[in-house]
Design a protein that fits this description.
By secondary structure, the chain is an alpha+beta fold. Helix content is 30%, strand content 26%. It comes from Cuscuta campestris.
Length: 109
């Protein structure tokens, strides 16, 4: 089932310095944008998920809606992340699950 709510996925790693820099930015965007689902995927914990999504650099931010990739951003680029979020934010949406076969990921609210 494809959901209508925008989802932003942060593919990250604990050892990645740019990821640690963007962590608070991502958390703040999640806090201030309640109509969007924000997820973090630790590429070391879920290397098969990262591989399936073609993640080659971190951090990688993917924007998804209704089962489609709307865009992505690689790197610690705060301004570009904020612009992409503004571009893809839509109202009146819902969300139930990100992936089949329950994988390990974080929800931000």
């Amino acid at each position: 089932m494809h959901e209508k709510k925008l989802m932003v996925v942060d593919f990250t790693a604990t050892w990645c310095s740019p990821c640690r820099t963007m962590g608070p930015v991502f958390s703040e965007l999640a806090r201030t944008t309640p109509d969007v689902i924000f997820l973090k995927v630790d590429v070391d914990e879920l290397h098969t998920v990262a591989s399936d999504w073609g993640i080659e650099g971190m951090p990688t931010f993917m924007f998804l809606k209704e089962g489609k990739i709307l865009g992505s951003l690689v790197g610690a680029k705060k301004d570009e992340l904020q612009k992409l979020l503004a571009k893809h934010t839509f109202k009146n949406a819902s969300f139930s699950k990100f992936m089949n076969n329950a994988h390990y990921y974080y929800y931000y609210s």
